UniProtKB/TrEMBL annotation:
InterPro entries cross-referenced by the UniProt entry: UPF0145_dom_sf, UPF0145_YbjQ-like
A UniProt-annotated Pfam family: YbjQ_1
Membership in a protein family: Belongs to the UPF0145 family.
Protein name as catalogued: UPF0145 protein OG560_15650
PANTHER family per record: UPF0145 PROTEIN SCO3412 (PTHR34068:SF2), UPF0145 PROTEIN YBJQ (PTHR34068)
Length: 121
């Protein structure tokens, strides 16, 4: 698996800027639209469950589960951006991820932040 299998984030020319900070240097917030989020719940398939169980006995990274979590986070982020765009934002400030188990059947990932309109100063 290559590096692209373990990463995420935005493309350099994204129309919605997503940052984990409260502000964007060189820009001012002209409108706060409000909270936006993207949510997804994924279950692990049987093959990765068995592989993870065996791997946990000898130690090491669970690459199949890592790849699944990366894909899940990226999907949550895409949904966050889609919601921000639909509400008229051009930025999401203070973006965070929340990850939890969902009823012992999968992993819930929520990307959330504050949708805003920003403009250069």
């Amino acid at each position: 698996m290559g590096i692209e299998d373990y990463g995420g984030g935005q493309t350099p020319r994204a129309d919605i800027l997503v940052v984990t900070t409260n502000d964007v240097p060189g820009h001012r917030v002209t409108e706060v639209i409000g909270e936006v989020f993207g949510l997804t719940v994924r279950s692990r398939h049987l093959g990765s469950q068995i592989g993870a169980g065996l791997k946990s006995m000898i130690g090491g990274e669970l690459k199949g589960l890592t790849k699944t979590l990366v894909e899940t986070r990226n999907q949550a982020m895409e949904r966050l951006v889609d919601q921000a765009r639909a509400r008229g934002a051009n930025a999401v400030l203070m973006m965070r991820f929340d990850v939890s188990e969902a009823a012992d059947v999968g992993t819930e990932v929520c990307a959330y932040g504050t949708a805003a309109v920003i403009s250069p100063t």
